[in-house]
Write a structure and sequence with these properties.
The protein is α+β, with helices and mostly antiparallel strands and 343 residues long. It has eight helices and 16 strands. Strands 1, 2, 4, 5, 6, 7, 8, 9, 10, 11, 12, 14, 15 and 16 form a 14-stranded mixed sheet that branches. It has a two-stranded antiparallel ribbon with strand order 3-13.
Length: 343
Amino acid sequence: MNFQNNRYTLKFADSSDNEGICEIFESGSFSGGISVQYLRGKTPYESFSADGDINRIMVVKDNSTGRTVAVGGAVVRYEYVNGIKEKCAYLTGLKIHPDYRRKLSFIAKAYSFLREGISDCPFCYTTVLDDNREAVSLFEKKHKNMPVYKYLGHYTTYCFHGGKGIIPVEIDNTDGFEEVMKKYFSEMSLVPCDTDYEGFGKKKFYSYRENGEIKACCFIGNQQSTKQYKMCSYGGIYKLVSKLPTKLFGYPEFPRPDSIINHGVVSYLYVKDNDPKLCSDFLRSAAKETDFSLLIWGGFDNNPLCDAMNRLKTVHYGSRLYSVVWDEENDITGVIGMEAALL
């Protein structure tokens, strides 16, 4: 699809667009006191594909130079919604190369184009960092040529470590997890039905048991082959804190600027009866068994395990969750169990 007097082309991406998408990702960073570049390696097209069943990522090309100037779209995967397996589309953030910001006017065309590609998904949603005030302002005002962004609540991503052998942890004994999946995770909303998406990374299963019964469990994965976080700089109070020996106080060690963070991602975290002490003891014991500098877990504000994270010493950042309503609204209700690994 061409626009702006045929200067630009909008299309669904393929693997030939990897280099151009890389350039865009490498040109941006998170805002706030901790500035981080969120990267998807040298093959971002394959990285998006790893997060679901279908990749519906779009790119905008400058026809005069062949340069990729914008990227965004959706990843489609089956997730539980209100206890039922549904086809869902997670809309990724739109990224525009700094050289082209405020020069492109293609939003209406992009939404129409994307809608055709995910028309079989009854549920669409997205997240936006709290600090991305421009996007928040855009989404929370109704626009003629955009779907409605319905604010559902707040999502917190926790970064922690504090590894310590408090309780015995088994590794890669998944006996009983299928039952946990059936009775616990399938009753939540926005939980991926497939635990084996490549985007979760190369993972191990950690569990704590009593008399053979799982009392707490999770996967911890190394997803650095498909996603990386590059520490750029620190500002404000974090500039001082980053120079302190935070690991001695139970906090994650602050990575050096210009380094790739050695992170692991926690997914499918289950703790019987949402016991906060057990959750804290289990995560610290599991963390001790890993080689990561820090671990990441995310929880929506109605997830009772968020309370348990307050027992850990964490660095965290917040996002806003929106249901994206195109034509007919389908409510997303109940406890939301989005996995930070696939966002």
